[in-house]
Structures are given as C-alpha cells and as structure tokens.
Design goal:
This protein has 451 residues and is an alpha+beta fold. It folds into 3 domains: 151 residues, RNA polymerase II/Efflux pump adaptor protein, barrel-sandwich hybrid domain (OB fold (Dihydrolipoamide Acetyltransferase, E2P), Beta Barrel), CATH 2.40.50.100; 66 residues, Dihydrolipoamide Transferase, CATH 4.10.320.10; 221 residues, Chloramphenicol acetyltransferase-like domain (Chloramphenicol Acetyltransferase). It is built from 7 helices and 24 strands. A hairpin with a 2-residue loop joins strand 18 and strand 19. Helix 1 packs parallel to helix 2 and helix 5 crosses helix 7. The termini are far apart. 31% of the residues are buried.
Length: 451
Amino acid sequence: MPEYKQFPLSDTAEGLTEADILSWHVKPGDTVKVNQIVVEIETAKAAVELPIPWAGVVTELHVVPGQTVEVGTPILTMDVDPGGVAKPAPVAAPVAAAEPAAEEEMKPLVGYGSKKVVTTRRARKGGSEAPAPVATPAPAAVAPAAPAPAAPAPTNGGYVPLAKPPVRKLAKELGVDLHALSGSAAGGVITREDVHQAATGVAPEAVAVAPEAAGYDASTRERRVPIKGVRKMTAQAMVLSAFTAPHVTEFLTIDVTPMMELRARLKDSRAFAGIKLTPLAFAAKAVCLAAKRTPDVNAVWDEKTQEIVYKDYVHLGIAAATPRGLVVPKIRDADAMSLPQLAVALGELTDTARAGKTTPAAMANGTFTITNVGVFGVDTGTPIINPGESAILAVGAIRDTPWVVNGDIVVRKVMQLSLSFDHRVIDGQQGSEFLADVGALLADPAVAFTF
C-alpha cells in the first residue's frame, strides 16, 4: 500500500515566516533518498537548499519557482512506500471535516530543528474535505497523473489555478473562470494574455519589449519587481536602524603607503603562500586591535532591558554585494585570528557569498561591520549601522594622491575611512579614538606593537 507524506516549508532560521521557491531539484516520478536536496529557497536572509527527511518517490510539487510560501505550507508530496514503482499522486477519499490534523515527526536535518509539523485540511462546503494541492503540470514523460474528468475542474474542486493577484483581478473583471484555463507561463502559471484570450477568443499582440513575467507594462514603459527575499530584509533592517539609532559619521584620510609596501613583502613570504592578501584583511585586523582599546564600538544598546551590552569577542561582519542583494556574513571570533587566518576567512566568506550559498546562521549575531566601498572605486560614504550593532566602518578606494611628507609634496597611496556609530552607545571621543587607532594601524602597521 502506498503511504503518502507531505513535505512542509520549514523554518530554516529563527523567526522565518515565509520564503520564495527558487528552483526544484526533483520532479514528479523521481526517486529520492533521505536528506537528498529537493528544493532551493530564498529566505529574507539567504538562499538555502532543503533536504527531504524521507526516501521514496515524488508524486507532486505543490508550488512553482518564484512563488512565495508561508512556513508550514506543504510544498511537495511523496510516496514513502512505493514498492519500487513510481505511483501517481494520491486521490484521497472524502474525510470528515472534524478529522484531527495529521502529525508527522520531522527528523533532524541540516538546516532543520527537530519539530512537529502539523498538516491541517481545510473543510469544503458540504461537510466533506479533500486535499487541495496546487497542480503543477508535469512533463509527459513522468509518472501518469491521477484520473481526472475530461472537463475542467469545477470552481469548488481541489484544483487551484496558479495566477498572480493582478491576473486574478483581471479575470474577475472580464468574467473569466481561471479554473477553466491552462497557464502558458512556466509551471502552468496563468498570465494576462491567457485571460484576455479566454475573454475575447483572440490572443493579444505580443509585447516585443519585455515579457509579462518580467513585470513590464507596455502602456507606461515601466517594469515592476516584487520586493522580497534579501532585498526585503535589507530594506527593513536599514529603515529600522536609520530611525532607531542616532547615527554619527566621522571621516579620516590616511596615507597607507607603508601598509601597501608591507603587503607586497608579505605576499612573497612563506606564511602567505597561496593566500590572497587584500587591504581589507589589514582593515579587519586593525578593527579587531582597535576594538580592544575602545570596547564601546563592540557593544550594543539593548532597548528592552535598558542596558549596554559589551561583547568580549568580535564577530566581524563583511558587507558583500551578491546577485540577490547585500548580505553581511560574519567572521566568528575574528579578534582571535592572525592576519593570515583573517585573509583566508575573508576569501572563503566572499566566495560563499558570491555563490549565493551564505546560510542565515552565518549572517546572525554580528558585533561590528566593515563595508568595502573602495572595491567599486568609491572614496567614502556614510554607511548605516546594522541592527544589533553600534558601529560600521567604510573603507574607500586606495588612490595615488599628492601628499605632504616632511615638507615635500610626493605621490602616496591614500585612502579614506568613514565610521558611523550609534551615539547612544558611543560618544564623539570614543568614536574619534577608535577611528584614529584604525587609521594609525593602516598608515603604519608597526604601530600594532604599541597596542
């Protein structure tokens, strides 16, 4: 006998409420193993691959790529006792509306906690109920679908048409029953063109500028992109920070010629063989050293308890631009690392972020952040503090600049630093002392011996 189980979207990070489906790694009819990756999702913090807690055969995918799903929503159904033969999706008999919710114990997996997942069924009119999956059209070569009537499913049946809210509104205005349509977009999603064609019997002229799926409106020549995922989280965090912490920003221009000369020597040393040593690694080391002398920059204001919490460790955040938006992964206990260790950690962190593989856990609980705007050729800026921290340092581009040395004007390697800090925690004196310390360490790395 087949045994069907539904795989719900789980909370991959504390407080997650929803996620976007990026791509499926399986399709109906596929045989999967325990802990096999089946789907990639994008949360408000990162892209995450989800493993399946059971072995069996996939019978149905309930959501399509690009769809936003709430935590706990079933996204996949599978037969965990297929007997070696792929089976079609289940056709459940009507069940009494008062039937208690079925509970399945989720096994601990990578990215999951051990938790109870409750799947509830919504009652239909007439006192009976049946599962109402979102139908995902499968290729002709996969396992056969459950028997279905020749006519389109009725409005109160189990079939739920896939369409965006504006398309649903348009269908209502034109009197088109979405249940009678087959979507032409990827995954069977119903488009505006599908609705217009059903209403008039004539397909509208194709828009040559951009597809409807891209959010392009030919009448206004504007393209709309939903705010979700990393971009949504970043916006919320920046607004919270800007209107909660009173920001102060200070600037410092320094001659980093000695640092660049030291970098050239170290790159040829045995200790840095195979290690990419960047100016950012020097900045990271300088921040960790300077934070020991000015612990206020590594503290945080706790509004709930009305306390300032000082951290005896530095979880250093590095702002990284990725195709999905800005992320800030952390180097844990950066203050305990040597310069070579920091250089290696920065390389690994950057590679992971660019590949879109930074996990939500890797971006949590930072104490201080560095943003390297210099990599874009920018001299400086006024960075916004990450929530949960009290200061952020912007590192600008290094340029050949006329500079006065012992009364003579010479060309030197010059860069600008800017420090934004929470004035509730850090006074002007502490902020200035910290920025001066970082500047001194970068202008002359030998100053580290005096710390």
